[in-house]
Amino acid sequence: MPHDNPLIALLVVGLGLAFIFGTIANRLKTSLLVGYLVAGIVVGPFTPGFAADQALALQLAEVGVILLMFGVGLHFSVKDLMAVRAIAVPGAILQMAASILLGEGLGWLMGLSAGGGLVLGCALSIASTVVLMRGLQERRLVDSDAGRIAVGWLVIQDLVTVLILVLLPIIGPLLSHTGAAHLGLRAILLMVGETLAKVAAFVLVMLLIGRRLIPALLHFIAHTGSRELFRLSVLAVALGVAFFAAELFGVSFALGAFVAGMVLSESQLSLRAAEETLPLRDAFAVLFFISVGMLFDPRAVMHEPLKLLGVLLVVLIGTPGIAFLLLRLFRRSWAVSLTIAFGLAQIGEFSFILAGLGLGLGLIDNHVRDLILGASILSIIINPLLFHLLKRYRPWIEQRDGVVPAVVAAEAEVRAPLPRTELTQHAVLIGYGRVGRRVADGLRADGWPLLVIEAGEGTARSLEDSDVEVMTGNAADPAVLAAANIAGAKLVVVAIPDIFEAGQIVDQARTANPHVRIIARAHFDAEVPHLTRLGANLVVMGEEEIARSMLAQTEALTVRV
Ligand code: AMP
User: Fold this and answer.
1) What are the pLDDT digits (tens) for 119-139?
2) CA distance 57 to 295
3) How far apart are CA 500 and CA 216, in angstroms?
4) How far apart are CA 290 and CA 295, in angstroms?
5) 262-287: per-residue pLDDT in tens?
């Protein structure tokens, strides 16, 4: 079967194994990405057993990159990009230049030609968008100062990569051992000019035409009332713009999708559009990591550990060290500088593309490509550990920031472990949305000591100045519930719409405290006994209450008539 249907085989086996290894990774309390990478290595050609189609996997991974960057663009406006340009543009360019030099040095030590060193250096200078964005999303840092600078930095890296991809075939041979094709400075400048002009033309077309056309199209589709069509239109726009950007303007898929998202972010529909792409985006992001794992030949790592170590040191210490110094020069706090530097301490998709190109041009051999791949996998595995260190040494970092007067304290975006509440005999309200907000007002008026758990960062922040204690996080996470002192609480109100998570929360709350009163929210008949069984004392079915109230109003109105 696998040979007849390579795509189906890849999806079934790849996603199935990613699920299994992801679950194991989760149990071992490490990043899910590690599980996906291992799944990739298992379905790859270098381990015994089933081998999935590598070329297919790479294409699917590219779809993942497109959807991811589209999502990033949706959360990013031109204004955001402009706000960080003063630091992102010089920062990213200087960091890449320095990392390329480091790579050249390492290449020289390894006996590569100058051209080979250039390929190695370029590959080591660019972080993986997927890994960095996943890291920021997991830690809810996308909307923070560090997050915005990191995204700006990524966009610049991406632009420079487009340029490198165009220039490498010209400059590379000049620097290789053979010194083949020879082009004058004029020709090189012409090529650079042409590439920049194409990128500028693409951005201009998007700003002048796309900015009007795309939101208008989505508005039109939204008015048809068909969710299915809307979802489809969002996908078509994301993939379509990315594809045409690459075909017509020579821009990378990632950059094309990013600009498409950014153009959309100025319309009100953007949030809905973002939500529509979420599930697909996650599935394809998993495929991206599987495809990375598939490229990896574990034997390559074992043969020359010293070389691998050298490459890894450039990625883990060289690049982040340079980025950190630059950010500090730009007067960013320790917390922000370290967050961004650690975010950049990994390499991924762009490095593979560059390594592939270098291989095709004969500048590097298979062996160097394997080193780049090995360093990529190891750096992706090590990356979450760096963030863990950051969390662990937060007090020390904050102390450092305290002595830098120019730095605003609010910049410290590194997350601390949740502090445990001091409240006892209190009410815990979960979800501060349309329902929770109203419940909170009532509870406060009744004099309850109140603690709110809310997953949405913005919503939670809106409560910060009030007298209510607020915790940002998913209440289904046992650590969050424990920090809310459920064991000492008197009342738990679960005001979230998702039955799956609500069930988890009710179950855990009941286990932690057999006496606490639990009131939960439901939307369907079957959810009421489900939540009751898990331990809720009272389940309020929203639709029933609405109907009851409507009926009462109808009666009141008809009596009056
Ligand atoms: P609404 O449906 O308008 O009442 O909004 C529900 C609110 O609950 C939103 O603000 C969500 O961010 C929040 N929410 C949903 N799930 C969770 C969860 N598992 N933990 C904490 N807050 C949540």
Assistant:
1) 999 999 999 887 888 788 777
2) 10
3) 36
4) 9
5) 887 776 666 667 677 778 888 888 88
Tell me if 6-401 shares its fold with 427-560: no
Band of pLDDT at residue 412, cut at 50, 70 and 90: very low
Q: Looking only at Cα atoms, what is the longest distance across the chain?
A: 97
d(CA 125, CA 164) in angstroms, rounded, equals: 11
Pocket test of ligand 1: the residue of 463, 474, 494, 496 to mutate, having most ligand atoms within 8 Å of its CB, is 496
What residue owns the CA closest to ligand 1's atom 13? 431
Length of the chain: 561
The domain locations on the chain are 6-401, 427-560
Give the HSE-up count for residue 531: Cα atoms under 13 Å, Cβ half-sphere.
Answer: 30
Protein residue with its CA nearest to atom 1 in ligand 1: 433
Packing angle, helices 366-392 and 270-295, rounded to 10: 130
Q: If you take atom 9 of ligand 1, which residue's CA is the nearest one?
A: 433
Cα(72)–Cα(308) distance, integer angstroms: 32
- The residue contributing the CA closest to ligand 1 atom 15 is 496
Is residue 512 within 8 Å of 486, Cβ to Cβ?
A: yes
CA distances from 480 to 427, 451, 462, 485 (A): 15, 12, 19, 9
Angle at 121 between CA 156 and CA 152, to 5 degrees: 15
C-alpha–C-alpha distance, residues 553 and 207, integer Å: 50
Pick the CATH number of 6-401 from 3.30.43.20, 1.10.10.10, 1.20.1530.20, 1.25.40.420: 1.20.1530.20
Confidence band, pLDDT 50/70/90 cuts, at residue 450: very high
Residue 410's pLDDT band, with cuts at 50, 70 and 90, is very low
Angle at 384 between CA 382 and CA 386, to 5 degrees: 75
- Segment 274-321, tens digit of pLDDT: 677 778 888 888 888 888 888 778 787 778 889 999 999 999 999 999
Tokens of 445: 């008026």
The separation between the first and the last C-alpha atoms of the chain, rounded to the nearest angstrom, is: 71
CA of 146 to the centre of ligand 1 (A): 26
DSSP letter, residue 425: S
Average confidence score pLDDT of the chain: 85
| 3 state DSSP class of 451 | strand
What CATH fold (topology level) applies to the domain 427-560?
Answer: Rossmann fold (3.40.50)
Record the tokens describing residue 503, joined without a space.
């069930």
**Ligand 1 pocket test target in 454, 470, 492 with most atoms within 8 Å of CB:** 454
Q: Judging by beta carbons within 10 Å of its beta carbon (0-12, 13-18, 19+), is residue 498 exposed, middle or buried?
A: middle
Structure tokens at 514: 């057999």
> How many angstroms separate the Cα of 382 from the Cα of each of 307, 370, 386?
18, 18, 7
* 303/301 Cα distance (integer angstroms): 6
